[in-house]
Amino acid sequence: MPKIDLKSQRKYFTHNFLEKEELKEVYVGGKRFYALPDGSHVPSVTTILSATSHEHLDAWRARVGVTEANKITTQAKNRGTAIHNLAERYLLNEDDYGKGAMPVNLSDFQKLRKVIDENIDNISAIEHPLWSTRLKTAGRTDLIAEWQGRPAIIDFKTSRKLKKAEWIQNYFIQATCYSLMLQERINMSCPDIVIIVAVDHEEPQIFHEKRKNFLDQTLDLFCVNRPAI
């Protein structure tokens, strides 16, 4: 695999970071909770979402077998972490953002980099903790920035195969939840939500939606029919 010139034609981003208040993570029974400034504990956004239906996931695990499913899941998690780290360092304007990365992950990131360069600027937050007393949850959003000139909640995902929008409704709900938490915390409006999926051996997929389209689902899940966790 040819060596990638990290500085070649790279973009540098404008930063105007929001004030950040870190939240302590606490794990209970393998599930992630956050300790809020008032001393209370709330489940993470992903903990609540993971408590929803797993029928498709259970069927897949049964089809491929537990051992193979665990292997694929671990590989996917490691790749996801690697791509997220590359994106974070790149968006922070680090010239050596790829230092220590596996060549295959760095090569895959170059496709994602093109999408980032063409659409994102004026960054307000990267890996930013948020919480809501109304939704009784907390989390950490990948990116708050302008997408094509409009404020947006932007989340990075990875996948072995191309996705359809109807398969990733939880991604949209997750981003909508972050948008609501941001508005509750500092009254900052992000009506746009963008999910970017880095797909193995494919160009990244971009799902650009409006928060309003998922508002009812999000409020129903987090405020009305909250799943047991």
Give the N-to-C terminal Cα separation: 45 Å
What is the gyration radius calculated from CA atoms? 18 Å
How would you classify the helix and strand content by structural class? Answer: alpha+beta
Count of runs of 4 or more consecutive helical residues: 6
Order of strands in the sheet with most strands: 4-5-6-7-8
The residue-averaged pLDDT reads 89
For the record, the count of structural domains works out to 1
Give the DSSP E fraction (strand runs of 2 or more residues). Answer: 25-35%
What is the correct CATH architecture? Alpha-Beta Complex
Q: Report the uncertain regions.
A: none
Order of helices and strands: EEEHHHHEEEHEEH
Descriptive account of the structure:
The chain is of the alpha+beta class and 229 residues long. It has a single domain (24-224), classed as Lambda Exonuclease, Chain A. The protein has six helices and eight strands. The chain has helices spanning 45-50, 55-64, 66-91, 103-119, 169-186, 215-224, and strands spanning 24-28, 31-35, 41-43, 120-132, 137-147, 150-159, 192-199, 205-210. The strands form two sheets. Strands 4-5-6-7-8 form a five-stranded mixed beta sheet, with helices on both faces. Strand 1 (24-28) and strand 2 form a beta hairpin. Helix 3 packs across helix 4 (103-119). The longest helix is centred in the middle third of the chain and has 26 residues, at 66-91. It is globular. The protein starts with 23 loop residues before the first strand and ends in a 5-residue tail after the last helix.
